[in-house]
Write a structure and sequence with these properties.
It is a single chain. The protein is built from 17 helices and 19 strands. The chain is α/β, with parallel strands linked by helices. The chain has a domain of about 210 residues: FAD/NAD(P)-binding domain. Strands 1, 2, 10, 11, 12, 13 and 19 form a seven-stranded mixed β-sheet that branches. It has a seven-stranded mixed β-sheet with strand order 8-7-15-16-17-14-18. Strand 7 and strand 8 form a beta hairpin. Helix 1 runs parallel beside helix 9, helix 1 packs parallel to helix 16 and helix 4 packs across helix 8. The two termini are about 35 Å apart.
Length: about 500
Amino acid sequence: MGETGYDIVLVGSGLGSLLCAALLGKHGYRVCVLEKNRQFGGCLQSFAREKQVFDSGVHYMGSLAPGETLYQVFKYAEIADDLPLEKMDEAVFDRIVFLDDQESYDQAQGYARFIETLVPQFPEEADAIRRYCEQLQSVCRHFAYYHLAPGQGLADKQPVLDLTLKDGLASLTSNTRLQEVLAGNNLLYAGDASNTPFYVHALVVNSYLQSAWKCRDGGSQITRRLVKTIRRYGGMLHNHAEVVSLEEKDGIINAAVLKNGERITGNHFISNLHPRQTLALTGSKQLRPLYRQRINALKNTISSFCVYLTIKPGTMRYEKHNYYLHTKNGVWEAIQCDPATWPQTLFVFFGAGQQQQDATTITLMTYMPYDWVQPWADSFNTDAAPADRGESYTAFKKEMEQKMIDMAARQFPELPAAIQSINSASPLSYRDYIGTADGSLYGIAKDAHNPLGSFVSARTKIPNLYLTGQNLLMHGLLGVSLAALQTCSAFVNETELLEKIRHA
């Protein structure tokens, strides 16, 4: 692998790690990124089937117009200007559909347009819809990093941390259908009505109301450009480099030990793995048993099952917006995954390519708990280590695929005849590629009843070991990006860094 002895060694190559490496490299640090799989990027990974590109995780993004938060972060990381983006339909980026009632509701980009679109369908709730928009923006102001501003700690966020999603919506309107519409895309953050904090909803939805985008030809375009930035500033990246332990000497980590026995030495180490996986790499006594117990007891969000459909040429129209399909009570009950009614919610995403009029790919996604795939938990399968999970697993996947396609066909009756090929990914796929023990959609779950219990600081008791991607109190691409900035602030002046990003 060549020379070692880096300023900063990063374990894992998800978005948080790549952003840290790019920004710290830009600030003069000599960085090295270690990835166990063939592809870099974590949830940004894309794959091809029959020459069509599919996203494994990130399907669409918010807050990417010039001047908006994620755009400014990407601009400073030197990837924004040539990123092949497609802005989603401003009149509707998410269409919320209630299949049993054959009713649909459009969510539009921009607060003014959002209100103008929704009020005609709920004329008696016009004031509630306006209050909802004001509340989203008010909640977001409690999070300084969300606006690329330094200085706010947990105390500043405390007033908005303990309100649940359902209670937050109920405080604005008693109209249950409007509540369902406003929470209709809650698969974006694994929204649990009674536990997910309202602020998580606010931070995520606000970013899409600002602007909503697809990445043409897959989210791996983000990875490729971040890799170029890292290398531009002298950084190194290695795939097929699985870290099996973090070696400690004199109270600090001095090397990442790879599966092949190689040691990568450094002055500082940043882990982009789930905190639980990070702790498993070190037996350091500086990480107290109580801390380990707390981290190991953290609850993750539920996992998912995805169906990837290649579409026959000319058989379906390409849509510049998403669909969230719900059966009765699906908005609130789908996350419980009752086998008798599964699936109750379905995300439908049309893959974006170059100047297309016809659909080429469609992705279907819904919730699935890890225990549904427990019979095959001893198997492992990636492109770097291919293996067959057996006929029973194949039969299970086919059954789940058909149920999801049948649900989608209630909105798109032409879909079954338009399918050219079918592939799918279960919680085991996400476990094997991303590294979380249960294939979690968004890592550590946020809980309004214990809002600080899910907080994990970027700093650990080992002076030169840091975490990234888990310490900000929000999910998704923007949340991971802002968490990476917090990790970077351990190495560069926070105020100066945020100032540079704001004015990039």
